[in-house]
């Protein structure tokens, strides 16, 4: 290292800052500069690959940690008070003693932080020292280095099953097609393989890539955290630019699969990698209760201020009154006003614990305990995936008990997201696949039993047209080709390569998994089918039955070996279901590479289609297309599949087509009514000329770096026109176990359930009935438009909006009337609303949203269909902000992430669609039914426990502090404490701290069975819940009353006697201990062994510690001196008599009030508790009676997993009462009110 | 098919490492006592507490009533008071005599207290104004008293021993009691032993190990308000001198409330062992302690004591009231129970 002037260093720092801030970065290879000094390195400005996530260094731990801790206002407050105590004129205690509580609390926090940080340091070290291969010019090959040695501009070689050390631009792979498969489970939990393509046109020969000859400049964007987006182009010396996107980027933390090795150019390293930028610690949400708590802390501050003011004024008054007394007391003193000013601060120090110092720490401890109990609940454990519930936000457990609105996704949340191909319609002819129903019951999701007629039809057309351009053939070819399913090789897919890196891989992976905060999990889905088969296959492999195949081409070259045993890895289960369906009819997808798809047709022939382009699915187009060249005819064929409304308008209209389209549409509607997910399959023959012109546009779009998405989409839309309808498919998605039951229970609990789905209205409606979101006999208001939004924008959207307004108004009016109608008293809340995305878009507009909410509020459930992810989150946000209610969003897919993040509580279902929802969520569960126990039982418990604990905490501090306050009236407002300060600290720190924490973790007001059986009970937590203005102030008043009793009983008993200060204070302290603990005893609803131990232990601890302290401390704490006081007192019967009477008098009102209230007007919770004590059989009878009494409908036998009958919809009728309003039909918007 | 196979194997392998342990604790099913606060349950409790309290209350009241108390104010604010002239100007060694009579025998042992009102011994700054190390007999602190003692730390540059406001303000009225028998004054003997706490006398306060004690106080000053130094508090009895003087100890134990009394002497000897017989008495007070300036009063109290200390009717009444309330409540509860009982309570 050569010496460099500080100026140069400074300049470098400025330059590197500048370089990092630039929107575009130009990177060149490091190799020509190898061995040169640091200042010569071209990429020296960018971050190295070593990561450091620990916040502290050993040397600066204390100052930095203190700095962190002082971000918490409470800590500043308490330290400020402690410092105040060091000022002689105001101090109330020995200054050092006042520091103890805050020091203990800050020390504990620092200990926790330090330990966490040390763990981070260790895992960083592990990661930084993982081995990897970097090309070295000196050695002329790849040499093993550490991850931390990787720099931007290096060439890194990643071997199969190794983890990628930095974000690499893929330049070359061992695969002949230059593709590389990666598994991103470390990043997003998705276990399916994703394909990445090497940047084309860089290597001279396919076999060897020479890093030294790489002389291009890589221009890429500034690092960002978007895992699915990357913009970059490579500029060759001859100025030729090649664009590259995310499909050429290997992300740090991914694992290379199915590819022997891949070589990449490091574009981002270390903290600038996408995975590290995504890794932003645990989320911090503030619960509703905590917000309320902060308000009350503010009230306490106000109270403290008033009390101190009284003290200070009192001091002033006493001063004037007995001014001369000070001749005896003190020779000289400050002026009265100054002295009373000082007294104000002395009072603050004395009464500081009115602001509960340990409350925040205790609340955190309680939440940890509550989370422990949620995590260990066996009922929330899923056998199949071996996973428990996950708590990702640690501080909103009590919010679970206050939910008023649930927003649920449909697919994968209410349903299994296990797709089964159920029916199809080809050329306007329906093939019902009746046998599938049976297969379905046997849970063979991927196995489709072919329809006899269809099989015959296929063999017929095969014979007639030799499989070239028959629509039936085309239909299945489209199913097999038009998707993004990856064929995985059974043998090598998850196999670890035995190599020099073997040992570190497994370990480092788990480290990495922790690092990115993602979780390993086992899927149980069609797409997982790949791995399951591979697991099975692996055993075959071990027996030597099947030779190892490392590469898809080899596999496809040996069809015999692979036949029947191909496994598919699809990003969405729908696609896999379609591919499996095609396979059943003999169209087997054998291999997919970026440039080709191999399909075996029923004749046994293998067709290799050249893939010219793939127009990937996006949520705007709602369709995907694959452009291939037919191997036999040589035609350019575009296969498109997509949502019916996204396809229908793109159809060409030659005569015959129209009829087919109409028939298909009819079938589609039928499918949808059956609750099936529908897709349209189309085909288009593209002429060579057309293709060429399109290709030019496409290339332009690909190379663009700005507005690339828009251009790509425009080019896609350009091609997808004049399609020919082939047919449609219907895929069944089974309802999850116990969903209807759960929804009924949630609704009885007073929670409104909204379902937001991207599906068609018919499908949604059907699922709505199936999961008992809608009841037969409900009034369903249907607000769906039958036109596309695109058209809408072209046509007069104003008209549409006006229509919308009037419909909203009419409906609202009707609903109001319906509610006011005395005949409908019993049947209120039986209105449901159904709305689609387009209408919703208008309803959500600022001038309509109030009316929409007004309507939605009166509906028992709301179904939104065809909504986009953004709309989902807008709906949640609107309801949350406008109605001021607690919302919960539950979903499983990436499209639910927005909604989950917006809601007060976000719940992710770790299902089939990756982990994005889970990553964004606060709690992750595996099944929808777990929501019931999570909310009704754990939510209720957590809420009541924490609410009562916090109220108790405020009470406890107020009751204790007020004792000191009352004493001020008798000591000249001079700030004297009649209790030794050490004992005061111990009182809060040891004697009375554990019982409330235990109370907050373990109290159980009603048993889990009752809470599950009578969801009604959940309502106690809704709204302001058990911790509200009233309960808080009642307990504060009680605290005042109790402290008055606790002070004045001893006062009156000792009045005029020769009692000394601490002798007077001891019965006060003792009886307040008993009052405070027994008060908790009244609050505790169930006493377990733990309760007894802690309560009795606290009392024992008080006496032992105080006795020991009074016996040992002769002059240890001058001038206060509690020597032998308690011993003396305990020998005096008066002590006991005083303690008993003050305890009884203090607690009598609360106790009596509870007793009378429980007897005269028992709350539902108390009634439930009574039921709890009955015999189970009697209890069930009572529970049933109760539920029916309270208007909660009896839980009917729910129809589990049976598909809803299509006849349900046939009775669609206008609700008679609606008259004109109901039959109001807008131009393109209909309002239907459906009753049964 | 493969999948089914896969799944079953998974289960057979016991692949449930994540399964939470199914114990009563983790599942929150620990056996618990669930007290039900309702009218029916608490009736016996209320009744029992009520009766017990009434019993205690009656006992306390009887005990308290049996205690005889005689209180005499001698502040001398009123002109009729015999001590009135002592409050005028600064007379030193003013003596006044207070006459009173006792109708019946004042049962012994009789405790003789002096009392002060409106006197804030519990004032914080007053309270901290002492040096423990001096009082425990550590001579090194005689030279440099604690700064807590300000402004009674030094006088004329010399350290004060015992320093501080409490010691400085020690009560210095003295009393002599005479029974007037046939016009003749007979001195009632006072017993000044053991009136302070045993721990104060034996552990907390110690004289420095000097003989004579005076030597320890070289180069120190007596407290400003004192007439004689600490080592001369009781020259007749070495075990009652210096810091372990009983009167000093009693004074140093600060009163909790602004109106208090402190034990001065007991009457346990001679003819008065069984108490003060009926008759006329005269109390000779050497009036030194000023209280008028802060509107305080001074008084003396004769009292005999029981197990519950001095006379105090409050506790007895409180117990009686609360006890009767509990009994009434139990009746109310009975009515409530009859009207609103839960079905399973039958």
UniProtKB/TrEMBL annotation, chain A:
Catalysed reactions, as listed in the record: ATP + H2O + phospholipidSide 1 = ADP + phosphate + phospholipidSide 2
Ranges where the P-type ATPase N-terminal domain occurs: 43-97
Source organism: Oryzias sinensis
Compartment(s) of residence: Membrane
Chain spans, region Disordered: 524-548
Family (UniProt): Belongs to the cation transport ATPase (P-type) (TC 3.A.3) family. Type IV subfamily.
InterPro entries: ATPase_P-typ_cyto_dom_N, ATPase_P-typ_P_site, ATPase_P-typ_TM_dom_sf, ATPase_P-typ_transduc_dom_A_sf, HAD-like_sf, HAD_sf, P-type_ATPase_IV, P-type_ATPase_N
Major site of localization recorded for this protein: membrane
Protein name (Swiss-Prot/TrEMBL): Phospholipid-transporting ATPase
Stretches that traverse the bilayer: 73-91, 97-115, 293-322, 342-363, 950-969, 981-1002, 1032-1053, 1059-1080, 1092-1114, 1134-1156
Recorded topology in the membrane: Multi-pass membrane protein
Record-annotated P-type ATPase C-terminal domain positions: 918-1162
A molecular-function term among this protein's GO annotations: ATPase-coupled intramembrane lipid transporter activity
Catalytic residues in the record: 409
Keyword Acyltransferase included in the entry's annotation: no
Automatic annotation (TrEMBL), chain B:
Any Pfam family hit: CDC50
Keyword check for Cell cycle: no
Gene Ontology CC terms: endoplasmic reticulum; Golgi apparatus; plasma membrane
A single GO BP: phospholipid translocation
Species the sequence originates in: Oryzias sinensis
Annotated compartments: Membrane
InterPro entries: CDC50/LEM3_fam
Broad class of the protein's primary localization: membrane
Spans through the membrane: 41-62, 317-338
Protein name: Cell cycle control protein
Key words, A-Z: Membrane, Transmembrane, Transmembrane helix
Family: Belongs to the CDC50/LEM3 family.
């Amino acid at each position: 290292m050569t010496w460099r002037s500080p100026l140069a260093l400074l300049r470098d720092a400025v330059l590197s800052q500048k370089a990092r801030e630039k929107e575009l970065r130009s990177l060149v290879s490091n190799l020509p500069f190898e061995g040169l000094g640091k200042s010569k390195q071209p990429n020296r400005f960018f971050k190295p690959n070593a990561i450091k996530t620990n916040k502290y260094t050993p040397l600066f731990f204390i100052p930095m940690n203190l700095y962190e801790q002082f971000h918490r206002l409470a800590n500043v407050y308490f330290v400020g008070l402690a410092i105040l105590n060091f000022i002689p004129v105001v101090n109330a205690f020995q200054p050092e003693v006042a520091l103890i509580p805050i020091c203990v609390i800050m020390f504990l926090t620092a200990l926790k932080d330090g330990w966490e940080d040390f763990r981070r340091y260790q895992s960083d070290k592990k990661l930084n020292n993982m081995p990897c291969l970097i090309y070295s010019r000196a050695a002329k090959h790849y040499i093993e280095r550490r991850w931390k040695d990787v720099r931007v501009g290096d060439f890194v070689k990643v071997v199969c099953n190794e983890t990628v050390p930095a974000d690499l631009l893929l330049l070359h792979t061992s695969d002949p097609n230059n593709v590389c498969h990666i598994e991103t489970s470390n990043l997003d939990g998705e276990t399916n393989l994703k394909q990445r393509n090497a940047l084309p046109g860089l290597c001279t020969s396919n076999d060897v890539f020479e890093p030294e000859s790489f002389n291009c400049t890589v221009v890429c964007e500034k690092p960002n955290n978007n895992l699915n987006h990357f913009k970059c182009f490579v500029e060759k010396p001859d100025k030729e630019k090649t664009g590259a996107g995310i499909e050429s980027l290997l992300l740090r933390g991914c694992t290379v699969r199915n590819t022997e090795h891949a070589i990449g150019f490091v574009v981002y390293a270390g903290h600038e990698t996408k995975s590290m930028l995504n890794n932003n610690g645990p989320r911090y949400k503030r619960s509703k209760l905590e917000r309320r708590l902060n308000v009350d802390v503010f009230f306490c501050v106000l109270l403290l201020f008033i009390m101190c003011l009284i003290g200070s004024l009192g001091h002033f008054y006493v001063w004037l009154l007995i001014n001369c007394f000070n001749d005896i007391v003190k020779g000289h003193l400050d002026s009265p006003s100054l002295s009373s000013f000082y007294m104000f601060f002395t009072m603050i120090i004395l009464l500081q614990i009115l602001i509960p110092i340990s409350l925040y720490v205790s609340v955190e401890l309680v939440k940890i305990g509550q989370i422990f109990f949620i995590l260990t609940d066996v009922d929330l454990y899923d056998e199949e995936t071996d996973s428990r519930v996950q708590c990702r936000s640690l501080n909103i457990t009590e919010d679970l008990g206050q939910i008023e609105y649930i927003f649920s996704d449909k697919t994968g949340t209410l349903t299994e997201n296990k797709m089964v191909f159920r029916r199809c319609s080809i050329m306007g002819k329906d093939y019902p696949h009746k046998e599938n129903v049976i297969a379905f019951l046997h849970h063979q999701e991927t196995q489709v039993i072919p329809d006899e007629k269809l099989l015959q039809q296929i063999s017929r057309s095969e014979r007639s047209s030799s499989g070239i351009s028959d629509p039936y053939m085309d239909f299945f070819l489209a199913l097999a080709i038009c998707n993004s399913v990856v064929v995985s090789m059974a043998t090598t897919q998850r196999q670890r390569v035995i190599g020099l890196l073997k040992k570190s891989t497994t370990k480092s992976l788990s480290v990495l998994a922790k690092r990115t905060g993602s979780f390993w999990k086992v899927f149980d889905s069609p797409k997982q089918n790949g791995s399951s088969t591979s697991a099975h296959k692996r055993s075959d492999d071990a027996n030597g039955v099947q030779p190892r195949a490392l590469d898809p081409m080899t596999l496809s070259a040996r069809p015999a070996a692979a036949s029947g045993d191909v496994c598919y890895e699809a990003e969405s289960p729908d696609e896999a279901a379609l591919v499996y369906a095609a396979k059943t009819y003999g169209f087997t997808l054998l291999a997919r590479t970026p440039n080709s798809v191999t399909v075996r047709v029923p004749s046994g022939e293998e067709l290799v289609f050249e893939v010219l382009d793939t127009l990937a699915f996006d949520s705007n187009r709602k369709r995907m297309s694959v452009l291939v060249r037919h191997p036999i005819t040589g035609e350019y064929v575009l296969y498109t599949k997509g949502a019916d409304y996204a396809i229908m308008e793109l159809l060409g209209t030659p005569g015959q087509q129209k009829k087919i389209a109409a028939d298909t549409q009819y079938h589609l509607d039928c499918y949808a009514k059956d609750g099936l997910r529908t897709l349209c399959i189309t085909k288009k023959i593209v002429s060579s000329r057309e293709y060429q012109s399109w290709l030019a546009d496409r290339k332009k779009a690909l190379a663009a770096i700005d507005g690339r998405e828009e251009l790509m989409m425009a080019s896609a839309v350009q091609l997808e026109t004049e399609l020919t309808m082939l047919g449609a498919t219907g895929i069944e998605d089974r309802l999850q176990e116990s969903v209807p039951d759960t929804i009924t229970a949630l609704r009885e609990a007073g929670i409104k359930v909204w379902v937001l789905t991207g599906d068609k209205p018919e499908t949604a409606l059907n699922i709505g009935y199936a999961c008992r979101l809608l009841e037969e006999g409900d009034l369903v208001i249907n607000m769906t438009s039958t036109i596309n939004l695109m058209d809408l924008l072209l046509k007069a959207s104003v008209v549409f909006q006006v229509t919308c307004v009037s419909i909203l108004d009419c409906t609202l009016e009707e609903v109001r009337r319906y509610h006011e109608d005395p005949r409908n008293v019993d049947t209120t809340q039986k209105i449901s609303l159904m709305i689609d995305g387009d209408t919703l878009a208008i309803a959500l507009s600022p001038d309509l949203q109030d009316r929409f909410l007004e309507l939605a509020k009166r509906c028992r459930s709301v179904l939104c269909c065809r909504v986009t992810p953004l709309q989902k989150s807008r709906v949640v946000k609107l309801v949350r902000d406008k109605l001021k209610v607690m919302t919960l969003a539950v979903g499983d897919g990436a499209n639910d992430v927005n909604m989950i993040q917006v809601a007060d509580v976000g719940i992710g279902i770790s299902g089939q669609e990756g982990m994005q929802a889970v990553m964004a969520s606060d709690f992750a569960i595996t099944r929808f039914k777990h929501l019931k126990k999570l909310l009704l039982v754990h939510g209720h418990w957590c809420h009541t426990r924490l609410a009562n604990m916090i109220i108790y905490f405020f009470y406890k501090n107020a009751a204790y502090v007020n004792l000191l306050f009352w004493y001020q009236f008798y000591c000249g407002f001079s700030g004297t404490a009649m209790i030794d300060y050490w004992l005061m600290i111990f009182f809060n720190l040891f004697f009375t701290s554990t019982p409330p924490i235990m109370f907050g973790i373990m109290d159980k007001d009603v048993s889990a069975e009752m809470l599950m059986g009578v969801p009604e009970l959940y309502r106690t937590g809704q709204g302001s819940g058990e911790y509200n203005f009233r309960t808080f102030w009642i307990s504060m008043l009680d605290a005042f009353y109790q402290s008055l009793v606790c002070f004045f009983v001893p006062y009156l008993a000792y009045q005029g006697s020769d009692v000394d200060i601490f002798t007077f204070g001891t019965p006060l302290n003792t009886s307040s201990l008993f009052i405070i603990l027994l008060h908790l005893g009244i609050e505790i609803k169930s006493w377990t062994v733990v309760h007894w131990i802690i309560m009795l232990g606290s009392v024992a601890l008080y006496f032992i510690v105080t006795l020991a302290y009074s016996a040992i401390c002769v002059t240890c704490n001058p001038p206060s001196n509690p020597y032998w006081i308690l011993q003396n007192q305990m020998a005096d019967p008066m002590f006991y008599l005083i303690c008993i009477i003050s305890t009884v008098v203090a607690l009598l009102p609360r106790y009596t009030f509870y007793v009378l209230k429980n007897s005269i007007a028992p709350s539902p919770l108390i009634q439930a508790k009574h039921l709890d004590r009955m015999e189970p059989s009697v209890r069930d009878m009572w529970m049933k009676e109760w539920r029916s009494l309270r208007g909660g409908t009896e839980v009917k036998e729910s129809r589990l997993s049976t598909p809803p009958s299509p006849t349900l919809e046939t009775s669609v009728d206008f609700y008679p009462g609606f008259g004109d309003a109901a039959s109001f039909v807008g131009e393109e918007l209909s309002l239907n009110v459906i009753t049964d | 098919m493969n999948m089914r196979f896969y799944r079953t194997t998974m289960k057979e392998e016991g692949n449930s490492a994540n399964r939470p342990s199914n114990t009563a604790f983790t599942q929150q099913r620990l056996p618990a006592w669930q007290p039900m606060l309702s009218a029916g349950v608490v009736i016996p409790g209320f009744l029992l507490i009520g009766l017990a309290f009434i019993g205690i209350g009656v006992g306390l009241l009887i005990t308290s009533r049996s205690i005889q108390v005689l209180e005499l104010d001698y502040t001398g604010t009123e002109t009729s008071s015999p001590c009135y002239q002592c409050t005028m100007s600064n007379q030193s060694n003013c003596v006044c005599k207070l006459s009173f009579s006792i109708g019946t025998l004042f049962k012994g042992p009789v405790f003789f207290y002096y009392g002060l009102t409106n006197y804030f011994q519990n004032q914080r700054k007053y309270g901290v104004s002492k040096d423990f190390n001096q009082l425990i007999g550590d001579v090194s602190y005689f030279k440099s008293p604690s700064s807590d003692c300000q402004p009674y730390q030094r006088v004329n540059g010399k350290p004060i021993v015992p320093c501080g406001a409490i010691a400085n303000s020690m009560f210095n009225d003295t009393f002599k009691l005479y029974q007037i028998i046939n016009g003749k004054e007979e001195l009632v003997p006072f017993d000044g032993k053991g009136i302070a706490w045993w721990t104060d006398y034996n552990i907390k306060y110690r004289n420095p190990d000097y003989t004579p004690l005076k030597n320890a106080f070289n180069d120190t000053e007596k407290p400003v308000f004192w007439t004689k130094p600490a080592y001369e508090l009781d020259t007749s009895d070495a075990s009652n001198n210096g810091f372990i003087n009983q009167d000093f100890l009693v004074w140093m134990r600060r009163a909790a409330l602004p109106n208090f009394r402190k034990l001065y002497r007991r009457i346990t000897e001679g003819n008065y062992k069984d108490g003060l017989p009926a008759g006329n008495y005269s109390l000779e007070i050497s009036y030194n302690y000023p209280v008028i300036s802060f509107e305080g009063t001074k008084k003396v109290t004769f009292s005999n004591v029981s197990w519950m200390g001095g006379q105090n009717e409050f506790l007895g009444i409180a117990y009686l009231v609360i006890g009767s309330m509990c009994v009434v409540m139990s009746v109310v509860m009975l009515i409530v129970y009859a009207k609103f009982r839960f079905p399973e309570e039958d």
